[in-house]
Structure prediction request, 274 residues.
Amino acid sequence: MSMNLMAQAMSIKVGNPLRKLVLIKMADNANDEGECWPSYQHIADHCECSKSAVKAHITALIKMGLLSKENRLGVNNGKGNTSNIYQLTLGNPVSSENTAPVSSGGTPCGSTWHQNQSLEPKDQNPSCPVAPQPDESGDEKFLSRHPEAVVFSAKKKIWGSAEDLKCAKWIRSRIVKLYEQAAESDGEVARPKEPNWTDWANEIRLMCSQDGRTHKQICELFAKANRDPFWCKNILSPSKLREKWDDLTLKLSVNPVSPADGHWNTAEAWENTL
Prediction:
């Protein structure tokens, strides 16, 4: 870790809080020469976001002149890839205001552009060569519209914030606990498969933004359904909770959350969810 690079990374404005976190993590992994080679998954795990989000933010940092990337082939006869080699270049960043979206015309004269990009000068202005610049990726465009997204699918146009994902993981923990209790009496009960976290977080976001619910209300109603002998077997996802919300509210309103279940936002309630 280079303390000098860490200090520089913290002082640079990149226009997006998650992008700033990715940059700081890259600086944390870099040596004194600014080189690092973390995997996308390693950065995603430490920044608590999806791998696709990391890829999109690294692409944006490269366009800003803060990173350069060298692809490496795998060691197994050239098959597969090892982690890329990155070089931090924090001395002369391009303003975040000038990086997204990027016009198809190319990069302006004098801006920092990557050494691994091919430069093809335009005939009309040989003193200021302009490099053909690829259109902004779909993921990067999506994140520019939804900067608070930590999980997302640009193709499906769905996403969720950190709080949405946290709520989804809490619901998942209650379902897993239910299966574990059932397995105590029947050892053949299998653990439920891992959900699609983007779908789950998006459904919770929609409950908040479109239906007017809060994360607290979502967790409290699910806790009631999770204790009910009938509903615990039928409400096993945020989408089903949303679909049956009115029925659950009417049928379970006489059963307040008991103290034994705890408050939805205590340390105990969130235990083992993240």
